[in-house]
Each structure stands twice: as C-alpha cells, then as structure tokens.
Design brief:
alpha+beta, 2,3-Dihydroxybiphenyl 1,2-Dioxygenase, domain 1, 2 helices, 19% helix, VOC_core, Anthracycline_SecMetBiosynth, Glyoxalase_6
Amino acid sequence: MQGSVSYLEIGAQDAQVSQDFFRQLFGWPFTASGEQPQEGWFQTPDIRVGLHGNDPVPQLLVFFQVPDMAAAMARVTTLGGQADGAGPDEPGFGVFCLCTDPQGARFGLHQPSAS
C-alpha cells in the first residue's frame, strides 16, 4: 500500500471559528460544501483540508491514500485495528473510511476518485 497522506480533516466544535482561524493563519482559500456554509474544505498548496463542525472533542484526522479500499480495510482488521464501513464515493474526492489502530488511535483511509 502507498500510505502517503492524501487528505486532512479538522473536526471542530464551531466550524466557523476554525474556518476563520485557519483562513487568517495560513491564507488558505475555503470552499463551502453541503448545506452548512461554514463546512467544506481549504485548499492548501499541497493538499485539501476538510472542515466540519459539531465535534464534541476537536480533532485533526489524517487520511492515508490507498489504491484499493476493500483490501486496505481488510488489512487494518487483520492487523488488529478497526475499519468502519467505507462511505459513498464523493465526486472529486473519492472514498473515505475511518479507522482505529489496535490502541484506539483514529485515522482515515482515502481512495481518490479514478478521474
């Protein structure tokens, strides 16, 4: 598996506060998505950084790129971790899956869109 970092996700209690902070700190442009205009993603020079709100505990999740989501999820489980079900294929992003390692550290898997 490749395993390079392909996406980051900021989970915030208040997405608007985090959006303002990171936009002002780094000058990252922000694109809103969905019904919540304070949620969406930043485009950094190298990678997209997602932002969502209503997380009881703010966190930063790292998503690692994999070529085959099903095989990667199976490998996580075989090695003693846990892989939640993969989400739907999001146009322009691909498929995501939240996981934990055997000690409970959270991370994600990301299979980019084919196009």
